[in-house]
Design brief:
Blueprint: H1 2-23, H2 38-56, H3 67-90, H4 92-106, H5 111-132
Helix pairs in contact: 1-2, 3-4, 4-5
Length: 146
């Protein structure tokens, strides 16, 4: 029953989102075939199809989550909110390094592995996105160095 309620809610949200995506979002020009107008439309169609699948064939298994898993999910939600809040002022590298370090610690990595993973993810992510893909990422506290 919960699957059908969830599928119905997602279907309603996806239909409203699809109406907005197909009627409201207009780009002055499209520099590639999958420009800013196409992605919301593709996402709306996928969301409608997935919600219809959930409505037609709901999962037969019970959704049982242990208390420890719920605690981890709550911590991840708090981490994501903190990451979004500190992304601009701290910068991509620092915010990503802290988020990925704590996140990997949640999945039983050692302190050394967590620190190395966080730093590597922040630095390599910045190199790929800012230098290779030429995306504009916030430099934050490292603006003088970068």
């Amino acid at each position: 029953m919960a699957d059908r309620i969830f599928g119905t809610i997602v279907l309603l949200v996806a239909v409203v989102y699809g109406v907005v995506a197909f009627t409201v979002i207009k780009a002055p020009f499209q520099y590639d075939p999958l420009g800013p107008e196409s992605w919301p439309r593709i996402l709306a169609v996928c969301a409608v199809l997935c919600s219809l699948y959930v409505l037609i064939r709901p999962d037969e298994l019970k959704f049982g989550v242990a208390g420890r898993v719920l605690t981890r999910i709550g911590i991840v939600v708090v981490l994501l909110i903190a990451y979004a809040h500190f992304y601009e002022p701290a910068g991509f590298i620092i915010a990503t390094a802290i988020f990925c370090g704590i996140f990997s610690r949640l999945f039983s990595a050692t302190y050394k592995e967590s620190i190395l993973f966080g730093i590597a993810t922040g630095v390599l992510g910045y190199i790929v996105c800012a230098l290779l893909l030429d995306l504009n990422l916030p430099k934050g506290l490292l603006a003088a160095i970068l």
